[in-house]
Amino acid sequence: MQATPRRTLVRFAIAAGALAAALPFAAQAQQFPTKPVRIITPFPVGGGPDGVARLVADKLSRTWGQSVIVENRPGGNGFIAIDAWKRGAKDGHDILVLDNVHLAAYPALFKKLPYDPVKDFDTLLPLFKTHFFFTVSTTSKYKTVGDIIADAKANPGKLNYGSWSIGNPVHLGSELFESATGTQMEHVIYKETTQLYTGVSTGELAFALGSAATAGPLQRAGKLRFLAITAPKRSADFPDVPTVAESGGPKDFVVTGWNAFAVPPGLPAATTDKIKADVEAALSGADVQEKFKSFGYEPFPTTRAQFTQFVKDESQRFGDVIRKANVTLD
Fold it and tell me: Could you read off the pLDDT tens digit of each residue along the chain, which spans 330 residues?
């Protein structure tokens, strides 16, 4: 019998060693999850984003046969939640909820971020998106968005609008509105969304952008009116509310808010594919869709490549607004 050359034996040993090293990762990807999973969110308990996260967590728990816990880490522009996630599990058992501003606005808004929006996250998929309404008091003199524009041009710097911080979608959407209409208005910051929309209802504010989730309660109570929706077309849930263009505003004026799930980069494809597929299945449930409707949220089905391009486009748009308005934060 011919002896096996030593060089061939060495090749066999190297290949066997590489296979043995890869087996744990392959097994982990096939078996994921192997322990309880955390969904770390920057949003407080209650409200739309938290409600969606908890619905998804419940469905994933049943699918995976493991506990899926929602851990709320609000505050600090979302940096508290991001830091907790970065210090957590690197194998996919810690999932992070990101708001659109974390990926698309903060890189241009903050001089220094405690994270890299490209290198630190593998943003798997969006959970939902929402458009905003121009909200005014039911006693407001404004009947259309065109009325707001005309008044703002006649009284530069005197009209005010509100939001709950600098750099959130409502603030940046309003800055975009100023830029698109060539107007100047005053930004008033409220501590909470409840105070913000109460301020609109009492006439303290001329208007504010608001979602169905945040401004809807006062609208349903008859204290707010929705002048227009910042979407390409009318909402099926609010068919009588025109688009911004239909209400005398800029053409193609669109402002969205959205949340996404992110995991650490570099996970096995089998793991990320499983998480993505199981989350998509959870989001497609009738109960989740009903919850979306109550919050004014929309499903956001998209491929990873399409979502990556969408984030790039959003980043460019918000970045242009932030630079033109000369808004920065330390």
Answer: 444 444 444 444 444 444 444 444 444 446 899 999 999 999 888 878 898 999 999 999 999 999 999 999 988 889 999 999 999 999 999 999 999 999 999 999 998 999 999 999 999 999 999 999 999 999 999 999 999 999 999 999 999 999 988 888 899 999 999 999 999 999 999 988 889 999 999 999 999 999 998 899 999 999 999 999 999 999 988 999 999 999 999 999 999 999 999 999 999 999 999 999 999 999 999 989 888 888 889 888 888 889 999 999 999 988 988 988 888 887
Please, which residues have CB within 8 angstroms of residue 14's CB and are 6 or more apart in sequence?
none
**Same domain flag for 109 and 179:** no
User: Does the bond joining 299 to the residue before it have cis omega, within 30 degrees of 0?
Assistant: no
Q: How far is CA 69 from CA 35, 54, 94, 95, 178, in A?
A: 11, 8, 10, 10, 41
What is the tally of structural domains in the chain?
2
Q: Does 137 lie in the same domain as 119?
A: no
Say if 16 falls within a structural domain.
no
Do 184 and 224 reside in the same domain of the chain?
yes
* Residues 225 and 319 both lie in one domain: no
* 207 and 236 belong to one structural domain: yes
**Residue finishing a domain among 225, 247, 269:** 247
